[in-house]
Structure formats: C-alpha cells, structure tokens
Specification:
This protein is mainly alpha-helical. It folds into 2 domains: 63 residues, Winged helix-like DNA-binding domain superfamily/Winged helix DNA-binding domain (Arc Repressor Mutant, subunit A); 152 residues, Four Helix Bundle (Hemerythrin (Met), subunit A) (Up-down Bundle). 70% of the residues lie in helices and 3% in strands. The chain contains 11 helices and 2 strands. A two-stranded antiparallel sheet has the order 1-2. A hairpin with a 3-residue loop joins strand 1 and strand 2.
C-alpha cells in the first residue's frame, strides 16, 4: 500500500476514507466548498501532493468537483435506485438504451470539447489509459466501473447539470444486474482493446477542441457496443 508523505502514517486508502467521511458530515447539499488543500494537509498531517491524489480519487468517484483557482466542492448526490428507476428498467431494453446513448453522448463529447478544463481533460486521459490496461481477468464490476467513470466524466466536462442527471439515469439502467449477463457474454479481449482505443481517441478530440471528430468517434464507439450486444442477445 502506498504510504503518503508526512508524519501521520496514513496510507492512500486511509486518507481517501477520511475525506469521504468529511464530505458525508457536510450533508447532501451540493457545491459546498471543502477546506483548502493546505488546510486538509495540516488537519491530517500529510503533504499537499497526497491531498491532491486523494481528491483526484474522490473526483473519479463523483463525490467532488474541482475548479482551478476556485477550489474543491461537494458534488451533487448520485441518483439512488428508486422504484421509478426500477420501473424504467422493466419497461425498456438495452437497444432503447443504446439508441438514447447514441443520440446523447455525442452531444456530451461536443460540449466537453468546447468546455472541458485542463484538469478535466487530464482526468479523462488517466481514466482512458487505465481502461487500456483492462483484461478479462479483472472482475466484471471493475471493468464496468472504469467504463462508467469515463463516460460520466465526459458528461461532467460538458458542463450541464441536467445532462449529468440524464446520463446518471441511463448509466444506472445499463448497469442494472439483470443486464450484466449479456454484457459479460459480449465482453472479449478484442472488444476491450477496441473500446480502449476509441476512448483514447475521444480524449484526443476533446483535448484538441475538435467537437465534430469527438462526436463521430463516440457514435462509432456506441455502434460497436450495439453490435456486440446484439450478437450476445441473438445467441440466447
């Protein structure tokens, strides 16, 4: 386990847990400012680099968002699995979900290419590079969580809170356990490699401020997902 700089003896996991507890104590109200990195480092007896690393982990989880020069803020609470969401799962299928994603996510990429901050682009690239290391030996939940993190960070970089909420609904539907058997059947090493390449190309388009190319690659990416899922369903 990585040891954090400083005399406290905390490791990376300990510090992240302490920050999660701090955010929980702040309640469910979004956009509350967290203490500065300097204050957090002093409170927990670690270096500021360690604090930045832990905050990056919480940003990946969607617990905080950061604005350069402004600080770190609590993120909106994630949507919970409500009965209405259960009804949505029972009323739809993944071809409908893919259809919505095909329309929505290219728009999110376009907006991200226009609005994403340098920090958001850097986070997207880190996640995309992490996705490029995925293998079939990893637990399915790990593979899915990193894929979900990439797409959600694009939604966040688009800079529209309503789009983020819409994406969260779609993401919760597509990750419903009743559908995971099909996603597992559709998962291949070749498919993971293709997805990883497309993710990296999408990041390049966002970093290059090229919304049209980014949207085109996202449509290609969603179409690839549709093709492998359709094959998995047809084999039932």
């Amino acid at each position: 386990m990585e040891t954090l700089e400083g005399a406290s003896g905390l490791d990376a996991s300990d510090l992240a847990d302490l920050l999660r507890a701090l955010i929980a104590d702040m309640g469910d109200v979004p956009d509350q400012p967290l203490p500065t990195e300097r204050d957090l480092a002093s409170r927990f007896g670690v270096g500021r680099r360690a604090v930045r690393s832990a905050l990056a982990e919480l940003e990946f989880e969607g617990r905080v968002w950061r604005r350069q020069g402004k600080g770190t803020f609590t993120a909106p609470a994630r949507l919970s699995a409500t009965p209405s969401l259960d009804r949505l799962v029972s009323r739809t299928n993944f071809f409908e979900v893919i259809e919505v994603r095909y329309k929505l996510e290219p728009i999110l990429v376009q907006l991200a290419a226009e609005r994403a901050s340098g920090d958001q682009i850097a986070m997207l690239r880190r996640i995309a590079e992490r996705n490029a290391t995925r293998t079939l030996d990893l637990p399915a939940a790990t593979i899915e969580s990193w894929d979900s993190a990439f797409h959600r960070h694009i939604a966040e970089a688009a800079g529209n809170r309503l789009f983020i909420d819409l994406y969260d609904v779609i993401d919760k539907i597509r990750l419903d356990p009743s559908w995971q058997i099909y996603r597992s059947k559709a998962r291949t090493l070749r498919g993971l490699a293709l997805s990883a390449r497309q993710h990296l190309e999408i990041v390049d388009a966002i970093a290059g401020r090229d919304p049209q190319r980014g949207a085109a690659i996202m449509r290609e990416h969603i179409s690839s997902i549709q093709n492998v899922l359709a094959q998995a369903v047809s084999e039932e």
